[in-house]
Design brief:
Blueprint: E1 11-12, E2 15-16, E3 20-25, E4 32-35, H1 41-46, E5 53-56, E6 65-70, E7 73-78, E8 91-93, H2 96-114, E9 118-121, E10 123-128, E11 131-136, H3 143-152, E12 156-159, E13 163-166, E14 171-173, E15 180-182, H4 191-200, E16 201-204, E17 208-211, E18 224-235, E19 243-246, H5 249-258, E20 260-261, H6 267-280, E21 282-288, H7 291-302
Parallel strand pairs: 4-6, 11-18, 18-21
Antiparallel strand pairs: 1-2, 3-4, 3-5, 6-7, 7-8, 9-13, 9-20, 10-11, 10-12, 14-18, 15-17, 16-17, 19-21
Helix pairs in contact: 3-7, 5-6
Length: 304
């Protein structure tokens, strides 16, 4: 069965609508539907570097994501393909920045679900010199702020949140999404950071702001690289001097295992691949208070 634009059997507040924009993304078998909110394409496109998508008139497969304009803002509905069935509920957001945040999160998740050999790492990743360094997520560890500051200092940005990891060959790829800072910014950030955010800041609301890396410092969707180092972030406001030290590979492995998700691969295969990865890379622990103190240490360690 084909689902043509203007006659698609999806309900919005129990009413059929004709204002449907159907988008096909490269690498995803099912499309995305925008209902009464085609205007989101323009700001979304600014934040997405190189992931090709196009408008289609029909699809034999229902959309895995439907974004709808409602009276109070926007609603996003995703199939269990992109979210676990037992945790999924439709979500509502008040502004463009918030709904696009949700779209980016669900597209990032879906990429792993649509690709059989991929599992997702909840990590930031940047090329510092010739080495791809990843920063596994840890609550309020500052990986997005670190990503933006490293980019401002000359690193090549891959991701501040999700890195698809190919279990068959050990490469990660860039999804191409811009980094997102949590607001308000610390009043202790240095001038380099402030100037970069002022110059490259884009879509924002009261909670978040997206930052657009310069073209030559922003890995587009599909660019691959091999992980060279894992850095475990420990943001401590009481820290008086940033310290980068060697970390146990077992500690890095534990963090990576805890930050992988959304995969069609068997869990034992994922563990083995991450075990092999931890054995192949250098592992480090970074304790710091502000990114301005930490960025020079990272360039000194990896930028040669």
């Amino acid at each position: 069965m084909a689902y043509p634009v203007g006659a698609a059997p999806w309900f919005v507040d129990n009413q059929l609508t004709k204002n449907i924009l159907l988008l096909s993304f490269d690498g995803l078998d099912a499309p995305v539907a925008l209902i009464d909110c085609a205007h989101l394409v323009e700001p979304f496109s600014r934040l997405c570097n190189g992931w090709a998508f196009s408008e289609i008139s029909a699809s034999d497969i229902p959309p895995f994501m439907t974004v709808s304009k409602i009276d109070t803002g926007y609603r996003i509905d995703c199939t269990p393909l992109s979210k676990p069935r037992d945790t999924y509920e439709p979500e509502e957001y008040k502004d463009e920045c918030a709904i696009i945040c949700a779209m980016i999160a669900d597209l990032s998740t879906a990429f792993g679900r649509f690709n059989e050999t991929v599992f997702s790492l909840h990590c930031a990743g940047l090329m510092i010199g010739q080495r791809l360094v990843v920063f596994p997520a840890m609550g309020r560890s500052g990986k997005s702020t670190m990503s933006v500051h490293l980019t401002a200092a000359g690193a090549r940005y891959f991701s501040d949140d999700v890195l698809p990891f190919f279990g068959d060959d050990g490469h990660i790829i860039s999804l191409g999404f811009a980094p997102r800072l949590r607001l308000p910014l610390s009043d202790r950030v240095d001038q380099l950071f402030k100037d970069f955010v002022s110059r490259r800041g884009d879509l924002a609301n009261k909670r978040y702001q997206y930052i657009l890396p310069e073209d030559d410092k922003w890995a587009p969707h599909g660019e691959r690289a091999s992980i060279s180092a894992v850095v475990l972030l420990d943001r401590d406001p009481e820290c008086t001097q940033a310290v980068l030290a060697e970390a146990k590979k077992s500690e890095a492995l534990k963090r990576l295992v805890g930050q992988n998700f959304d995969s069609n691969l068997d869990i034992s295969k994922r563990f083995q691949r991450l075990h092999d990865l931890a054995g192949d890379v250098t592992c480090h622990h970074l304790r710091y208070a502000e990114t301005g103190e930490a960025v020079p240490l990272l360039f000194e360690a990896f930028g040669a």
